[in-house]
Amino acid sequence: MITQNDVEFYKENGYLLVKEVFNQQEVEEMRTAVDRVIVKAAASKYDSNAAWGGDYLPPEEMKKLVLKGFHDVHYHDASFTRAAIHPNMVNVLSQIIGPNVQLHHSKMLVKPPEKGAAFPMHQDTPYFPHEKHTMLAASVHFDDSDMENGCLCVIPGSHKQGLLPHVGRHYLNHKEYPLSMGTPCPAKAGDVLFFNYLTIHGSDSNRSSRPRRNVLFQYRDPMDFPTEETHINWGQGLMICGENEIYKEYKGIY
């Protein structure tokens, strides 16, 4: 899937867009699964609007925005489990993380048409800090994504700055780091954007008539240990490729 030049690009810039990781049938299976999860969640007591609060948008615009975000979607549909361990994903991950790769968690982010919520610029690091910073996100696109429907934007090379001070619910000061600083990463359905958890990223609102549906898989080297006991979930630590070099007893939180 990728070349040594791609690996070097990732190391230098902190992100890499890989085209056609998933075929149309696989994308359609996951789209259907996303719809099922949303319907089931709506019928439960766990449904909510996951849009971020803050002063990065005018209040009158903020209250109109919606984000459907659910964690650990591979617990809800096997199509996501197949995606997490897909040979094409393993091919990329084994080259940019190393021979041993572990799943940390997954999450679904759906921006509905015309009112999909924005994400201010931020790093993922504050949510689950680790010692060696091998953690990355693999954002799987189920729809063609561009600036009109809120595609991801990244600041190339920002992962080299280390962890920056965040405000609010773990986002950067929007006056110092406006979305316009980012490089847009438009993608097609089936493409995957890989980015380090220190890479500054964000996305604009979905103002189009099209949805923007993504699932993110967070991966790490199993020898990269968390520095805080946070974001722990049942079943965390699925080996994607290689081995876990130490024996540890994994216990659920439920």
Gyration radius (Cα, Å) is: 17 Å
Mean pLDDT: 88
Give the helix proportion (percent range).
Answer: 10-25%
End-to-end span in angstroms?
A: 38 Å
* Total number of helices: 5
Number-wise, the strands total 11
Shape: globular
Classification by helices and strands = alpha+beta
Biggest pleated sheet: 7 strands, antiparallel
Question: Which percent range describes the beta-strand content?
Answer: 15-25%
Weakly predicted, low-confidence segments: 62-67
List the main descriptive attributes of the protein structure presented here.
single chain, 254 residues, alpha+beta, seven-stranded antiparallel β-sheet, 5 helices, globular
Please summarize what this structure is.
With 254 residues, this protein is of the alpha+beta class. It contains five helices and eleven strands; from the N terminus they run H-E-H-H-E-H-H-E-E-E-E-E-E-E-E-E. The protein is 20% helix and 21% strand.
Structure overview:
It holds the Pfam family PhyH. Keywords: Dioxygenase, Oxidoreductase. This is Ectoine hydroxylase-related dioxygenase, phytanoyl-CoA dioxygenase (PhyH) family. InterPro entries: Phytyl_CoA_dOase-like. The structure is a single chain. About 2% of the residues have low confidence. The chain has five helices and eleven strands, in the order αβααβααβββββββββ. Strands 1, 2, 3, 5, 8, 10 and 11 form a seven-stranded antiparallel sheet that branches. A four-stranded antiparallel sheet has the order 4-9-6-7, with no helix packed on it. It has 254 residues and is an alpha+beta fold. The radius of gyration is 17 Å and the shape is globular. 20% of the residues lie in helices and 21% in strands.
